[in-house]
Design brief:
By secondary structure, this protein is of the alpha/beta class. It is about 25% helix and about 20% strand. The protein has two domains: about 325 residues, Adenylosuccinate Synthetase, subunit A, domain 3 (Adenylosuccinate Synthetase, Chain A, domain 3), CATH 3.90.170.10; about 60 residues, no CATH class. Strands 2, 3, 4, 5, 8, 11, 12, 13, 17, 21 and 22 form an eleven-stranded mixed beta sheet that branches. The protein starts with a strand and ends with a strand. The relative contact order is 0.16. It binds guanosine-5'-diphosphate (GDP), 6-O-phosphoryl inosine monophosphate and magnesium ion (MG). 6-O-phosphoryl inosine monophosphate binds next to helix 3.
Length: about 425
């Protein structure tokens, strides 16, 4: 069964339990029905981030996911009222650290960790394996059923028990027949049992189910500050990523409008999140991949193992063609460069600034993976820095070589770097 948080009805919730709610993600503590609270004072260190009156901010990954979007969303919650997950499902794994605690979130937006935030799982999100190396969370099946329409159940259907029962009977009859054909020993599903199970969820979820599109439009009219939390990364976008090695949703900035019903022009600050290097989980070409001791060093120091599946992440040099493409399709206003501390201690660093494909040089990102697989990365090489930078809080205090490295990312992506992260904790952040 695929539960779509979709269409007219999705989920909005406000955390009321004393924080922290839970440390593992997944199940959530009781929350009350979404409603507005008074304005929240921003933390002083974030005030400088405001360049104007911001109505909506978006946080989008510009690589292949795991850029540390969760940390930035958490940082920005103090100057927002509502955090919205607009695509993806529990294939995402966002780790947030503060006050000595670690929180791992999958479907719920990072806003659930804060009392003053209303968290919205909007219509474009999915609630619920193959050669491309999926997270095996049923996300592809879920979006496929949504697009196919005939065999999908959406969250709003929980509010109509008779309709839900009828839908389940039709779907289960079809699926049983289908699966029996594939495997004669298959034990059929029982529609009544599934209905009974989901009726129990209905009791729990009903207070949180609402028309999230109308909710967000009312919030905008009431001048509430919205924060859109992207999952995955721009290069995993179904339409614009490295197809077929992608996820099933619009995981670049392109997905915000379709996933939430909030027009793109409402977003006055689109923050592109990049790691100071590149990682990728699962299959697909990866031009700057380091299958050597440097890649292993980055994996070890950066703890590059999947939050959801625990799989080792593939590691490589920063690829400005990848991130520049991500920045262009998502339309970023500024950048956050994350995990810079992980590169400390390396003798030299490389940034891929252009691709050579079939003897031609280009900074255009190849639209076909066959072409991407033939890329020869052309690198700019930098001297590294030896000292630990995880305690540094001002750009001016960073080693010259680290500043030069970040400046080059800014130059190649044609975008200002406003945040540099030097450790997983909320405090380990430099605003530039
Ligand atoms: P997301 O999916 O984009 O939210 O990213 P993940 O949470 O999956 O992966 C990022 C990982 O890096 C998490 O374990 C974070 O705690 C950690 N992290 C975030 N920022 C930094 C940083 O600046 N330095 C280091 N060393 N770790 C960081
Ligand atoms: P966050 O939000 C990194 C990858 C999977 C696989 C491909 C398709 O934590 O950045 P799927 O299960 O979505 O059908 O898998 O996409 N993938 C991610 N990689 N971070 C993620 O999310 C990812 N979500 C999916 O590894 O290659
Ligand atoms: Mg992640």
């Amino acid at each position: 069964m695929s539960d779509q948080a979709g269409g007219q009805f999705s989920v909005a919730a406000r955390h009321v339990a004393p924080r922290p709610p839970n440390k593992t993600g997944g199940s959530i503590e009781p929350r009350e029905r979404a409603r507005y609270t008074g304005p929240v004072s921003p933390q002083p260190f974030l005030i400088s981030l405001r360049n104007s009156i911001v109505s909506a901010t978006a946080v989008v990954g510009l690589q292949w996911g795991d850029e540390a979007k969760g940390k930035i969303v958490d940082l920005l919650t103090s100057e927002h009222d509502i955090v919205i997950r607009y695509q993806g499902g529990n294939n995402a794994g966002h780790t947030v650290k503060f006050d000595g605690e670690t929180y791992k979130l999958s479907l719920m937006p990072a806003g659930v960790l804060h009392d003053h935030i209303v968290s919205v799982v909007a219509t474009g999100a999915s609630r619920k394996g193959e050669a491309i190396g999926t997270t095996m969370r049923g996300i592809g099946t879920c979006y496929r059923e949504k697009a196919g329409r005939a065999h999908a159940v959406r969250i709003g259907d929980l509010l109509y028990p008779d309709l839900l029962r009828r839908r389940l009977q039709e779907i289960v009859a079809y699926k049983n027949q289908f699966l029996k054909t594939l495997d004669p020993s298959f034990q059929p599903f029982d529609a009544d049992a599934i209905f009974a199970e989901y009726s129990a969820y209905t009791t729990l979820l009903t207070p949180y189910i609402c028309d999230t599109t109308a909710f967000l439009h009312r919030a905008l009219a009431a001048k509430k500050r919205l924060l859109f939390e992207g999952a995955q990364g721009s290069l995993l976008d179904l339409d614009h990523g490295t197809f077929p090695y992608v996820t099933s949703s619009s995981s670049s900035g392109c997905g915000i409008h379709s996933g939430s019903g909030v027009p793109e022009r409402t977003i006055s600050r689109m923050i592109g999140i990049v790691k100071a290097y590149t990682t990728r989980v699962g299959g697909g070409p990866f031009p700057t991949e380091l299958n050597n001791e440097i890649g292993q060093h980055i994996r070890d120091v950066g703890h590059e193992y999947g939050t959801v599946t625990g799989r080792p992440r593939r590691c490589g040099w920063f690829d400005a063609v990848v991130a520049g493409y991500g920045a262009r399709i998502s339309g970023v206003d500024c950048l956050a460069v994350m995990l810079l501390d992980v590169l400390s201690g390396l003798d030299e660093l490389k940034i891929c600034e252009t691709y050579e494909i079939d003897d031609e040089r280009t900074t255009d990102f190849p639209s076909h993976v066959e072409r991407l697989a033939r890329v020869q990365p052309i690198y700019r090489t930098f001297p590294g820095w030896k000292s630990d930078i995880s305690h540094i809080r001002r750009v001016a205090d960073l080693p010259t070589n680290a500043r030069r490295y970040v400046d080059t990312i800014s130059e190649l992506l044609h975008s200002r770097v406003e945040i540099i992260s030097v450790g997983p904790d909320r405090e380990q952040t430099i605003l530039s």
